[in-house]
């Protein structure tokens, strides 16, 4: 067995299987991360919502299973809201209910519908609503509701998918219990797989509070950019009824293989939009030989919209809270469990810049800038096991920048690259032979060194 986790930085449950993040919400000073979880085994099944909380998005504390599957239904992916105005009547104005909106999946796979559960004790214990399901089209594929309070309409807005039809549907409700259909989006963009786990949210453009655009994330499996699971996004406008995309061509959220089913938190203060994805791919998620747990999340990332070369793009960066965990400065050859590598890379000489990260058990991976293809890349060919997969994942620069910034979070189990202001992201799992707890970096021989570089150790617990 490999010690695949090693890092307290990427959330994994203590034991057993995990996939999608669910019910991401901030309430009373705590970030809640619920997740698709099999409480009994290290494989997918008995799907229930696991639960963890954090005060800073980095240091997570796992709590008991929140919403458990029952004799008839599994608890599939969904979201959570705090019902501050007690529209549902589940709580009171003094103690509002946290309400989970999830997909009730019948164990014989014959039926999926949207259902509610509520908690009056900050997500610790939950009651399934006796009137479930609350949105039922009598379909066997209809899932992954993301609910938020829509200020445009002063109502609850649900974004949910018809996976086989490659459609996102929007519904509105005043009380979380009765839902009215508003419109559908799709099929457009990438359609070679089931659409799953949608999320619609507003963001300011370039931080300008007078310019709002809406982002629609849609996970797709298979049919992702690198094969298997992937997430596409569209930018457009929301008029309270319909999402109108500026462009219906797919943008990829991530150019690596291991960032799926990601969604954003509700109710984060200061209008921050924080995203977490499941750091795996359905193509091989079950084959990863980790024990006694299986599945990790990406680092929480703050999403923004930035204008670049006249086009609005989604940008992702590790949340600023990570800075509190940065330790000593390192130079080539120093070892640490996790590293943050920040560099500025020059493209004008037409030369490649490569970093090599070597684990203490000897295997290594590379990432950097490939001048020939004008791409940022990760090459994990020497940091993988026998599981079939592609190994080189790259993202082409879209502009003609003379230099660009790169931030890489690397360890022995994963690499997360945020380049060109976070507009190009690559997330890949790694598999290094033997027990590797620490890594070191060097600038690969024969290539151009970066313009500037700063490397820090990341200490998961302070
Ligand atoms: C995405 C997904 C969701 C579903 C859940 C089941 O990874 O397939 O569509 O709700 O996982 O665990």
UniProtKB/TrEMBL annotation:
One of its GO terms (molecular function) is sucrose alpha-glucosidase activity. Residues 10-312 form the Glycosyl hydrolase family 32 N-terminal domain. It comes from the Bacteria. Gene3D superfamilies: Exo-inulinase, domain 1, Glycosyl hydrolase domain, family 43. GO terms for cellular component: cytoplasm. InterPro entries: ConA-like_dom_sf, Glyco_hydro_32, Glyco_hydro_32_AS, Glyco_hydro_32_C, Glyco_hydro_32_N, Glyco_hydro_beta-prop_sf. GO terms for biological process: sucrose catabolic process. Coiled coil: none annotated. Residues 334-441 form the Glycosyl hydrolase family 32 C-terminal domain. Transmembrane segments: none annotated. Keywords: Glycosidase, Hydrolase. Belongs to the glycosyl hydrolase 32 family. This is Fructan beta-fructosidase. It comes from Candidatus Planktophila lacus.
């Amino acid at each position: 067995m490999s010690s695949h986790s090693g890092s307290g930085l990427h959330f994994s449950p203590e034991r057993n299987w995990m996939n999608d993040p669910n019910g991401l919400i901030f309430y009373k000073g705590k970030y809640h991360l619920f997740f698709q979880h099999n409480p009994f085994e290290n494989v997918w099944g008995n799907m229930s919502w696991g639960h963890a909380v954090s005060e800073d998005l980095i240091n997570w504390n796992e709590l008991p299973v929140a919403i458990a599957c029952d004799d008839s239904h599994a608890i599939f992916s969904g979201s959570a809201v705090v019902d501050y105005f007690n529209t549902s009547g589940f709580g009171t104005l003094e103690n509002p209910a946290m309400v989970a909106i999830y997909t009730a999946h019948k164990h014989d796979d014959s039926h999926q519908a949207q259902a509610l559960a509520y908690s009056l004790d900050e997500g610790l214990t939950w009651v399934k609503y006796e009137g479930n399901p609350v949105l039922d089209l009598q379909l066997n594929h209809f899932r992954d509701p993301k609910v938020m309070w829509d200020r445009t309409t002063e109502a609850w807005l649900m974004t949910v998918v018809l996976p086989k039809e490659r459609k996102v549907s929007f519904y509105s409700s005043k009380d979380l219990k009765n839902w009215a259909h508003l419109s559908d989006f799709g099929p457009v963009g990438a359609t070679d797989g089931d659409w799953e786990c949608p999320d619609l949210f507003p963001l300011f453009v370039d931080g300008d509070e007078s310019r709002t655009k809406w982002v629609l994330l849609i996970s797709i499996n298979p049919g992702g950019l690198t094969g298997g699971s992937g997430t596409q996004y569209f930018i457009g406008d929301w008029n309270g009824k319909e999402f109108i995309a500026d462009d219906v061509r797919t943008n990829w959220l991530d150019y690596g293989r291991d960032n799926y089913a990601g969604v954003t938190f509700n109710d984060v203060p200061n209008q921050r939009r924080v995203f977490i994805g499941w750091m795996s791919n359905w193509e091989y998620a079950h084959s990863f030989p980790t024990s006694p747990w299986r599945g990790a999340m990406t680092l929480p990332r703050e999403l923004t919209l930035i204008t670049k070369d006249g086009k609005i793009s989604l940008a992702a960066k590790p949340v600023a809270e990570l800075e509190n965990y940065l330790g000593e400065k390192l130079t080539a050859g120093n070892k640490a469990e996790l590293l943050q590598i920040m560099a500025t890379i020059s493209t004008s000489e037409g030369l490649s810049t490569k970093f090599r990260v070597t684990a203490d058990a000897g295997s290594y991976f590379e990432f950097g800038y490939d001048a020939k293809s004008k791409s940022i890349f990760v090459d994990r060919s020497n940091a993988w096991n026998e599981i079939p997969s592609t190994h080189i994942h790259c993202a082409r620069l879209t502009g003609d920048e003379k230099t660009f910034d790169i931030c890489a979070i690397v360890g022995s189990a994963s690499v997360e690259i945020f380049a060109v202001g976070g507009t190009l992201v690559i997330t890949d799992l790694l598999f290094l032979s033997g027990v590797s707890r620490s890594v070191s970096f060097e600038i690969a021989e024969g290539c151009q060194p970066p313009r500037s570089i700063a490397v820090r150790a990341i200490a998961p617990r302070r």
